[in-house]
Amino acid sequence: MGTALLTDRYELTMLDAAIGSGTHDRECVFEVFTRRLPSSRRYGVVAGTGRLLSLIEEFRFGDAELGWLRDNAVVRPETVDWLADYSFTGSISGYREGELFFAGSPILVIDGSFAEAVLLETLTLSVLNYDSAVASAAARMVSAASGRPLVEMGSRRTGERSAVAAARAAFIAGFIATSNLEAGRSWGIPTMGTAAHSFTLLHDSEEAAFQAQVDALGPATTLLVDTNDIASGVELAVRVAGTALGAVRIDSGDLPVQVAAVRAQLDSLGATGTRITVTNDLDEYTIASLRAAPVDSYGVGTSLVTGSGHPASGMVYKLVSHRDSAGNWVNVEKKSAGKATVGGRKFPVRSLSNGVAVAETIYVDSAPDANSSERTLLADLVTAGTADQRYIGAAGTALARIHHASAINELPDDAFRLSRGEPVIPTDYRRGIT
Amino acid sequence: MGTALLTDRYELTMLDAAIGSGTHDRECVFEVFTRRLPSSRRYGVVAGTGRLLSLIEEFRFGDAELGWLRDNAVVRPETVDWLADYSFTGSISGYREGELFFAGSPILVIDGSFAEAVLLETLTLSVLNYDSAVASAAARMVSAASGRPLVEMGSRRTGERSAVAAARAAFIAGFIATSNLEAGRSWGIPTMGTAAHSFTLLHDSEEAAFQAQVDALGPATTLLVDTNDIASGVELAVRVAGTALGAVRIDSGDLPVQVAAVRAQLDSLGATGTRITVTNDLDEYTIASLRAAPVDSYGVGTSLVTGSGHPASGMVYKLVSHRDSAGNWVNVEKKSAGKATVGGRKFPVRSLSNGVAVAETIYVDSAPDANSSERTLLADLVTAGTADQRYIGAAGTALARIHHASAINELPDDAFRLSRGEPVIPTDYRRGIT
């Protein structure tokens, strides 16, 4: 199945009507942005871009799609014919994947005819909204963990394909691995995992289960010690695996207290090198609360893949400029109450002072001159229909992770407070003198 | 791409170790349930079952998957060979899709060898958790709308494939249509949609845009009237389309006030049959707040596809019974703090009094005798590896919608209060005399 019907019906009816009125081939600029960050957030993290570029390449109307549109009279026959030849031939620039965003940041700019560009609205927003929601939550968890490694384990708490995207978004924001195998295969992300409670319960005793696991996976494995009593589980784990046991995992209980007790017990048993990993419904706040506890790594699920309270990023896809019937560019904006937009093509830069971000400066209509205190934020992603392959696939995912690490390093310290607050830098619009 | 790698790595490492210890072919019973409903909720709605049955049929390890597992040494070579022959040959019973669930309801019961059944954990939970979260939110919106039709429009606010599942889950819970075209094609759900603000902004005037839309789609279309001033938009819409205009859509502003004003204006213009549809960030609470306003239909997006505050359902997949080395059945349960489970195979019924639900009664270990005041909740979904085709595809989706309408009709009136509260019926466990 292709991606062309992952689309709201109104995009096709708009196309249909625009073909009728002769406006469908007007050159247009659409932009993707969020009007505001979620209330508690000081910055957001762009993710999904690399996935989106591949999905746009697959955005074609094949026989199955065309037949369905025709049979259901979604659009007129001449529009079905137009769709048969469709592929996106325009250009897309945007924030690099892994980049930070703030209110109004134009994270994607789509140049193309109205017809070509309007069709990509839903797919673009689905990908960027979800993936950015996960990456934005993940980045907060990474900073709350203060350098301790985090593993994404939330596949079971989001749709089965979103799970793969979530693993990828978390990796870009600094998680080190995922439990999701398809994310390993598709995106080159390291995968981790050893055993669930069912493995212990399957065996005639906890000891038999631990022995089976150590026999198969070696003593460096991670044993899950809370199926019954944790202290007994830890004692048994070291007895079976020896002091070379890799790690124990704790998935329940009052973690700060529990973790300290387990650390002391492991040390007293001589398993001083055995690590402790915790996985009990963590979010950025509980991770921060464990800073003083001797945790070695975190596994995070539900809160991560649901954006930790903000499961959608609020991104919208808006027409900001187009050529009119005389061929002149016209800036456009809607005036809807509470949802007004800013017309005109944007040229965003991150304003820096001594290497620290101080503002998201968005020039409207004309680009600023190159300037060492302003980092340009738009990169060419698709040129005349062809995507820059550097941003795609496993290599693109790895590149996004590197870019994120560099971009977040520019933020002032205030960005990393977990409490509710304003965006850590303001968004300033600047209009050229025209 | 198949579905076999939409799986957490630990399922394969458990399989690997169980093959090593000779426990992999022990007969097992796994159950899917949620420990508690989200705090504000009085009932939940099962969704995803029909999708899951198809995804389980596609759960095979092909050359690409096997090669990746081998190359990455996820499991030992003999386990890779075992996976090459895998298909699920066990049996699955469960709550009918569209059925209601409460704390502890065993919505899916998987019978099979440990090896066969453990592999389905992640896929099963991904599907049931997400789809049920959406259906549970959707059902509340349907009751808040008091009979007015609701359309699902949230594709852009969730992952691109989750969007299709969300449209389906909302339809099962009583929504009448979706904006998502793939949901129309895959699941036979009616699709709706006409135009966005970009269509108005593309044209040289709002009048030209309305005229283009009416020319293409006829006067029975829905015109979006809030790109500029709503009163001017409504006046123009009726002038262009005539009093046979199908509907106007309002996507911004203070809806109760706005809607009443638009209704009065439409009536004064003679457009007494023109309907009003609203689409401005609705959830069950804002829908309920519009009960007194002359709204004709609602379009719902973000809050629906993100489960209205509860984006994951909390479903877990737990081993409850298995045969031991002597071939005897052993009930098992974990004792982890706050996460203890109830061992033993469950036989759930909905206890009714005069046709009204009074309890979720869960018999443990043995089924009750047939009883007119207890509706049996488990249906045979998969028998010896073969799914009941009635529950699959578009026909299965339609059947689930019918079943939901019937099941929800059994709930006491208290179920439909939107305020926070306890589950509307208690869950009672009953153990047979053994």
TrEMBL record, chains A, B:
The protein's UniProt keywords, in alphabetical order, are: Glycosyltransferase, Ligase, Phosphoprotein, Pyridine nucleotide biosynthesis, Transferase
In its record, the post-translational modification comment is: Transiently phosphorylated on a His residue during the reaction cycle. Phosphorylation strongly increases the affinity for substrates and increases the rate of nicotinate D-ribonucleotide production. Dephosphorylation regenerates the low-affinity form of the enzyme, leading to product release.
Pathway named in the protein's UniProt entry: Cofactor biosynthesis; NAD(+) biosynthesis; nicotinate D-ribonucleotide from nicotinate: step 1/1
Provide the catalytic activity annotation: 5-phospho-alpha-D-ribose 1-diphosphate + nicotinate + ATP + H2O = nicotinate beta-D-ribonucleotide + ADP + phosphate + diphosphate
Q: Which domain of life is it from?
A: Bacteria
EC number from the UniProt entry: 6.3.4.21
* Pfam families linked: NAPRTase_N
Q: Which GO terms describe its biological process?
A: NAD+ biosynthetic process via the salvage pathway
Q: Which GO terms describe its molecular function?
A: glycosyltransferase activity; nicotinate phosphoribosyltransferase activity
- SUPFAM superfamilies membership: Nicotinate/Quinolinate PRTase C-terminal domain-like (SSF51690), Nicotinate/Quinolinate PRTase N-terminal domain-like (SSF54675)
Q: Which GO terms describe its cellular component?
A: cytosol
Function of the molecule: Catalyzes the first step in the biosynthesis of NAD from nicotinic acid, the ATP-dependent synthesis of beta-nicotinate D-ribonucleotide from nicotinate and 5-phospho-D-ribose 1-phosphate.
NCBIfam families (alphabetical): NAPRTase_put, PRK09243.1-5
State the family named in the UniProt similarity comment for this chain.
Answer: Belongs to the NAPRTase family.
- How is this protein named in the record? Nicotinate phosphoribosyltransferase
